[in-house]
Amino acid sequence: MNFDLSDDQKMLAEQANKLLAEVSTPDRLRQLIDEKADYDQVLWQNLAELGFLGAAIPEEFGGIGMSAMELAVVAEEVGRYNAAIPFVSSVVQAAKIIELAGTQKQKETWLPRIASGEIIATLSTHEGAGDMQSPPLPQCRLDSNGLSGKKLPVADGHYAHLAVVTCQHQGKLALALVDLTQDGIQKTQLSSFDELRPFAQLSFDQTPAELLELDDCDSQQALYKTLNYAAAIIALEQIGGTETCLYMARDYSLERQIFGRKLGSYQAIKHKLAQVYVKLEIARSNAMYATWCLANNASDTGEAIAVSRLSALDAFETAARENLQVHGGIGYTFEANCHFYYRRERLLAGLLGGKSLWSDKLINAVKAA
Amino acid sequence: MNFDLSDDQKMLAEQANKLLAEVSTPDRLRQLIDEKADYDQVLWQNLAELGFLGAAIPEEFGGIGMSAMELAVVAEEVGRYNAAIPFVSSVVQAAKIIELAGTQKQKETWLPRIASGEIIATLSTHEGAGDMQSPPLPQCRLDSNGLSGKKLPVADGHYAHLAVVTCQHQGKLALALVDLTQDGIQKTQLSSFDELRPFAQLSFDQTPAELLELDDCDSQQALYKTLNYAAAIIALEQIGGTETCLYMARDYSLERQIFGRKLGSYQAIKHKLAQVYVKLEIARSNAMYATWCLANNASDTGEAIAVSRLSALDAFETAARENLQVHGGIGYTFEANCHFYYRRERLLAGLLGGKSLWSDKLINAVKAA
Amino acid sequence: MDFNDTPDEAAFRSEVSQWLMQNAPEFTITADTKEQEFVAKAKAWQAKKAEAGYAGIRLPKDVGGRAGSEMESILFDTEEGKYELPLGPVVGIGQSMAIPVIRKHGTEDQLKRFAEPTLKGDITWCQLFSEPAAGSDLAGLRTKAVKDGDEWVVNGQKVWSSWAHHADWGILLARTDPTVAKHKGLTFFLIDMKSPGIDIRPIRQISGESDFNETFMTDVRIPDKYRIGEVGEGWACAMTVLTSERLSSAELKESESVDYLIELAAQTPGDRGTALDNDCVRERLAYWYSLEQGQKNFHLRMLTKLSQGSGPGAEASLLKLVYAQRLQQSAGFGMEIQGLSGLATSPSDHAAEEMQKTYIWSTAMRVAGGADEVLLNQIAERVLGMPGEMRGDKNIPFNELA
Amino acid sequence: MDFNDTPDEAAFRSEVSQWLMQNAPEFTITADTKEQEFVAKAKAWQAKKAEAGYAGIRLPKDVGGRAGSEMESILFDTEEGKYELPLGPVVGIGQSMAIPVIRKHGTEDQLKRFAEPTLKGDITWCQLFSEPAAGSDLAGLRTKAVKDGDEWVVNGQKVWSSWAHHADWGILLARTDPTVAKHKGLTFFLIDMKSPGIDIRPIRQISGESDFNETFMTDVRIPDKYRIGEVGEGWACAMTVLTSERLSSAELKESESVDYLIELAAQTPGDRGTALDNDCVRERLAYWYSLEQGQKNFHLRMLTKLSQGSGPGAEASLLKLVYAQRLQQSAGFGMEIQGLSGLATSPSDHAAEEMQKTYIWSTAMRVAGGADEVLLNQIAERVLGMPGEMRGDKNIPFNELA
């Protein structure tokens, strides 16, 4: 048994860290917000050049063919610097579902272009409000006339090149692959709580689209696996964010004087941050185990991922809130850096469903075991 | 508007406080545990003599005819001193349900004897495990042959003189009045978590019993009203216990030296106890309002009682646990007084159902409003 | 204990309620009301109330008040709260901070000069207390005022002054003696916000709004007649302001209430029908509802105490503490139950947007007017009688602190 | 990262597992095993392990150990944990506290004298550290040892010594110099529990049990050869003991696990069928389950660190912190979902009784071996590098403290 990253994985983390620290600075984030940029194109380009975007895409489809563990290592750095990129949409969710459910031809067509960063892809499952374990069959429908219906919110939907869209086809759940660069798709940008991660509403009206289907592929299963996979990877993004919040708060508390003492010398602040540390390390331990399970097809993968997501949700929620609290008034200003994480935390919580949904999944998995 | 006790109510509180402080001392409680006493007969006798047992029983049935508010005032003192008496069983629950659902004759027969302390009565609704908003129809059955079936746990069941028992009668929920002093009832004392409040299992086998029914009385309604009434009164008992825990912990923290400082000078302890204080005052405010609603038949009584119970549960749970924590090792000894409240807290939580059940009631009440 | 009105209370309530029915509607605002219009309406509404004798219910008649009882003031606020009126800091700071401090620590001339125009809405106020390095530790402030003949010359920087850009006057706390311990060297002033040397810059907040300001003061001159209280009495004056602030923070926006959230959950699809059919959603909402009711009921208890003549003590701190923490949790949860739609909203989705705003705003509430941790300390020390924190600045002259 | 065994690990695991299959069953215990039988079996099992070379896996061979690796020790513990064996303080204190401290701070003679008989279960140990007025603040202890020729004369009172009434020897921390600062005046001893002047009195606990004791020492004489380390080195010795204790507290009783609670909820009737069908029950249990898994996984990370040669740091404090708090909450909740039956139990209702015991026991766990608050301080100070608490006892001679 060895519960530690390999030397190669550590080197990968270092590389990713170096790049992100240099490019994705807080001032860069402020600039992107002011410019209302869709995403950080410079960073995306850099990541593509270093091969990070194709880290977990199989070699035969233009990727590097590393495991979920390596992708998770990169995700942690993305989270640490609150990067403004379609990482989860394109290289985690869309790439995975195409890999799982696409035909050889679909994979050959799209995965290399995702890996190289040439195109940005997204996965769209939502049709309005609600956080459900078993959502109803999508209203969006694919038939011989094409794809029709509305999807919202779609991450990066107004500028992505490609979308995998959940829809109904012959009365069953199906996955449609849509080229978003074609005419006739109505795209409306939504107002996003995370100012660095944009969303859109997409309306299709007999839009040409193809089914994503391997002969024996069950769309429900592919979707389930993709969302689980994303949960495992996003947990590391949450952990990266948690760690940034923890040490940002710690550092500020050691700088700020209050009533003639360091703010960080007050037990209320010490205990608050110690509790964040505890949540962080619990989440990290669970996330490491879950990604190992994922990479090794362990029998308790589903359970381990649910555990990992629950503790990552808990850690980042507390860290993002209390980081602002420790900063006091200054944290409420745009010039401070707390707000990036305060917003991103909610986004990552909303992206794949909250505590209720994953608790349900976990208890079901434990009962089934 | 006036959100304060009246002078009469304050005097009542003082009287009750004086008696309980004198009789129901921690050493007395230890003695009762060692003697495996059913209850504190001396205290019960004293309370009877001062008229406290009949405080809320109508004058025409031998009581003093005061309102729920006055009974709540007494309950707070019972809670403050963790008294070992069948207060809730006899003068809160049994007396109330007989008052609500009994015929004139039944009330004339039993209420004066409950008010005087001559007999102890109890209300029995449980038939084994579970904490349900809508429990199934009781297995206990009353027909022309008498009452048959098992009830457990029954508070004070092995020594009480009289029980009101939920049962089914002609396929519907009914309330049976049983004289427990008659032969043929099998009584087994259970192992009680609160060593000062005993429980039993009662087995009936064609036991003579009579229905409790006013002509137009709906048993379900009477039961619902009685449990709500009890929740409002018990909230004050919980608040009394909370306050004792808070100040016991505060006093100890000001005595105990640790690392050359008073334990109570550490911010972790200060904030812990300040949070208990906040919960206490929230609970007290809600409980005062709920008992006023009850005494005045306000339209939002149901909602106010659910609110009151939820905050009383929260306050006492935190206070009982953190009181032990503040005391450290000494709190784990029988010689310290923390454990009385640590056990009583669970009992009062279990007695009428926990957070889940009352949350349900509250949301239903708010939605209906 | 009686939550019903006494006959006198009922009569007053009915009088107020009728007056409001006739007069309030034309002053009401909506979420879309623009800032300038809000300010204009706020002043006009204040004037209307003053005219009818409802502006300073507890103030004596000779300063434009009504000389009414505490309970009348409470009743008026309750009835007024039933309309969406332009209340808040624009006119509120004058009424709830400036007048009380002038009354308690100022001269009769000062009170005459400012009370009536403030009550009428002719003068609006802002608060110049906090500084970048002096928030919770307010007494650590650095803005200095130096006596020069009959005037004081003020230099320094204040922060978090809400609505300063609309205010006519400010209440200012400044250091007049750095050679004594930090609480002892402060003096309280009224400052004309149109004075030369005042530069007001909006702060870009994380909400995207800029309703708070930084106020830079460079050689601003204040005539000595606008000093409140004695030189060195500033801390006591500031405490008067903060105490009267404490009880006024219990007003909730409708979208901040748990009722609003219950409604939202009932309209959001969920696995069992709606989100409100989930037991856990019910349990959380019920818990927050009980806190919100507790806060309201505790507030009523405090008002009863007030009407009996005893002022709000440190225990009133719990009002904001309970409110702000609950607000952050419940708004965060409100976003969560909507799933991704709680985070990326269509222009028409008003509820989701309100939830987001509240979630951001709650972070300010957890800090402003006493951070959570400061309030817990106050309760522990002043209510429970536990020891104060060990301090590094006690009895040390301000200019010798590290 | 790899959670599978290496070939070497797999071979060792299989060897251990076979040996256990052959030998463990006759030593297993049940909830009904009486104290005397427990102690006898514990010693016999220890002897059995020693005979087979599994008693001190990490210890060098010359003291009866196996000179094995950290990972082998971990693997053995894991496999051993699959049987209900009489482990715990009776033999555990000797192995996990006495031998490590003797090895690190004692002489070779002392190690020879005690290591082997301890490993064989011939000598059992108790810990004499805490005192009524010295719990979290252990260095404030008052038991004194005064040198008299070649012996030390000990007077004082210790508390919370578990199983002291069965122990042959004790590890004792006593004050040998009250004129220096409190941490500096302590010395560490081995004490023969059969010595004249030792009086062991059971403490009546809130659980109704009395497995902890108070130990009164009156003029107890300890030969100087049983002193461990130098005079005044006692605090360092105690730290060695407490550090090696820290990692060993991660073993869970089955009824303390969240799995047990999930099972219980699935068997308890509820409004939607069983209690486990309530969303809120699910959400709480899932949260605690994630904490329990996190605790296990964090423990494995620590073990990996250990096997790489770096000792457990202050971060290991989080294991007990997470465990004890979760235990109290989940046991309390386990009682709640059963309603009144969780509080008044029939003799046959084993699960409800276990829940009650755990709810009581959790209060001890939140305090023993570092109270929650002490552990949080350790994490803040030693892991996050935040300032220590202001102390009133730093560098002040013990006998001058208030």
Give the topology, please.
The complex is a heterotetramer, with two copies of chain A (369 residues) and two copies of chain C (402 residues).
Chain A: H1 7-23, H2 26-34, H3 41-49, H4 68-80, H5 87-101, H6 104-116, E1 121-124, E2 141-143, E3 146-155, E4 162-169, E5 172-179, E6 186-189, E7 191-192, E8 199-207, E9 210-211, H7 219-255, E10 257-258, E11 261-262, H8 267-295, H9 301-327, H10 338-351, H11 355-368
Parallel strand pairs in A: 1-4
Antiparallel strand pairs in A: 2-3, 3-8, 4-5, 5-9, 6-8, 10-11
Helix pairs in contact in A: 1-3, 1-4, 4-7, 5-6, 5-7, 7-8, 7-9, 7-10, 8-9, 9-10, 9-11
Chain C: H1 7-23, H2 35-52, H3 70-80, H4 89-105, H5 108-119, E1 125-128, E2 144-148, E3 151-159, E4 169-175, E5 186-192, E6 198-202, E7 213-223, E8 227-228, H6 234-246, H7 258-267, E9 269-270, E10 273-274, H8 279-307, H9 317-337, E11 344-345, H10 350-365, H11 372-383
Parallel strand pairs in C: 1-4
Antiparallel strand pairs in C: 2-3, 3-7, 4-5, 5-8, 6-7, 9-10
Helix pairs in contact in C: 1-3, 4-5, 4-6, 7-8, 7-9, 8-9, 9-10, 9-11
Describe it for me?
- The complex is a heterotetramer, with two copies of chain A (369 residues) and two copies of chain C (402 residues).
- Chain A has three domains: 7-115, Acyl-CoA dehydrogenase/oxidase, N-terminal domain (Butyryl-Coa Dehydrogenase, subunit A, domain 1); 121-211, Beta Barrel (Butyryl-CoA Dehydrogenase, subunit A, domain 2); 219-368, Butyryl-CoA Dehydrogenase, subunit A, domain 3 (Up-down Bundle), CATH 1.20.140.10.
- Helix content of chain A is 53%, strand content 15%.
- Chain A has eleven helices and eleven strands.
- Chain A has helices spanning 7-23, 26-34, 41-49, 68-80, 87-101, 104-116, 219-255, 267-295, 301-327, 338-351, 355-368; strands spanning 121-124, 141-143, 146-155, 162-169, 172-179, 186-189, 191-192, 199-207, 210-211, 257-258, 261-262.
- In chain A, the strands form three sheets. Chain A has a four-stranded mixed β-sheet.
- In chain A, strand 10 (257-258) and strand 11 (261-262) form a beta hairpin.
- Chain A starts with 6 loop residues before the first helix and ends with a helix.
- Chain C has 402 residues and is of the alpha+beta class.
- Chain C starts with 6 loop residues before the first helix and ends in a 19-residue tail after the last helix.
- Classes of the chains: A alpha+beta (369), C alpha+beta (402).
- The interface between A and C is large, with 53 and 59 residues.
- Strand 7 of chain B pairs antiparallel with strand 11 of chain D, so a sheet runs across the interface.
